[in-house]
Amino acid sequence: MKILLLVVAVIFVVGVMLYNTLVSRRNQCDNILASIDALFKKRFNLIPNLVTLMKESMQYEKDLIEKVTRLRTKAMQPNLTPEQKMAIADELTRPLQGLMMAVENYPQLRANEQIMQLMRTLNEVEEQIAAARRAYNQAVTDYNNAREMFPSSLIANWFNFAPKPLFEIPETERKEMNIKELLNG
Amino acid sequence: MLIKSSDLLDFYYKRLYPELQKLEQERLEVRKRLIFIFVVIGVTALFYLVNYHDGAAIYGTFIITVTSGGFAYFWLSSDYRRRFKDRIFRQLIAKIDPSLQYDPDGLIPYTLFKQSELFVDAVDSYKGSDLIQGKIGKTPLMFSYLDVKKKRNHSRQNNSRIGVFVGTFIVTEFHKNFHHTVKVYPDLAEKYLGVAGSWFQGSESEKVVRMDSPAFEKEFKVIADDPVEAHYLLTPNIMEKVVQLRKRADAPIYLSFCHNKLFIAVLNGENWFKVPVFESLFRMNVVKQYIQSLGLVFGIVEELHLNRRIWSKA
Description:
Chain A is mainly alpha-helical. Chain A has one domain: Up-down Bundle (de novo design (two linked rop proteins)). Helices cover 79% and strands 0% of the residues of chain A. Chain A contains 8 helices and no strands. Chain A has helices at 2-55, 62-75, 82-102, 107-110, 113-148, 152-158, 171-174, 179-184. The longest helix of chain A is centred in the N-terminal third of the chain and has 54 residues, at 2-55. Chain B is of the alpha+beta class. Chain B contains 9 helices and 9 strands. In chain B, 27% of the residues are buried. Chain A binds chain B through residues 21, 24, 28, 32, 35, 117, 120-121, 123-124, 127-128, 131-132, 134-135, 137-139, 142, 179-180, 183-184, and chain B through 176-177, 202-203, 206, 209-212, 226-232, 235, 308-312, 314.
């Protein structure tokens, strides 16, 4: 009888530990997702200033400026799912980088310290977003592994720990951007 | 590397070789004296042990022999070693970059060692030498040999010390803004136990952050409060370069990003700038090793793109 009680106690303790591991890994994913959200907001707050400063001088990039402004407004809508936010953010990356690279053709913009500082900050935020995506994907991989591996898979199925999807890293983030050379100069 | 290795080779033959010839004469003289002193100490110890060979006498003789041998070594070779450092290291470092400063007796200040948060043991002895500092491009860099020890235990009977860190300690400025400390330690669990080690690592602490580079994860473990910041500082490029650095240094490597600085501790267990006393100075290997070690440290700035100023921290 004592042995049986001991076995049940050990199984219970192990079960609690596995449950807690799954919860902490799920929370880790949610925390990083919240960080990504905060970084998106930081990015959106920078765009109006940058657009205002660039609009005057950039004659041939009106389409890019318009696209960036439109996507920013779209991304600021309430009640968007994380997947939708991520999709709009991906869509915004390319025109935003295009806009930053176009500065190369406008010496008066390159000489403007306010614009260059804004671009440095934006570049920093872009890199933070890329890092947050990597951190999220790693956290999701750890979480999904835990929920699929035995014996934690038993607990995961019992308590309905749903799998989480990985974010696709856009091709633009994998490449070394020319913008770095522009800012470095 | 700030200067081509072919230029350094040229410099070796033109400038360093004549100096090495003079120093080699001095080294042979020092070696001769040291051998004589060692023989005298050895014969005296042997004579003593023939007459008194109980346990306490053997132990006492051993301690006195080693201490007097060590004292003789440092006393007789100190002038030669100082001249070697002045004539060879100083010239070599000035050749690499004239703005670099070399102080044979200098060391990384204890406050900086402590600031790195890499080694948290209570330190009992903090020594070092061969401080080199200056700027590589826009990036300030300083490094020295450090020999840091702590007491083995706190009992009064046992005052022996064990090493906390023995090797090369590098401090440089990091070009990105960050708010939390990120520390990188050698990962012995995952390296030797594989998947079981990574499971153990995961259960060890909440602060362990798993990175997205298998090669890096195999060698290192990352401790950070914020996983996003850890990924921001440790980009795929930096992780790849840190793995390469660890291979080239052939020693455990510790990194710490804190107080806007990057601290790198190479636990190589010896001074890279040790002056040879019992080895011929004409062996190309001697100078080659110094050049390689300097190249390894100065190369960090280039390899990790620390001179890039593309973030808001201008």
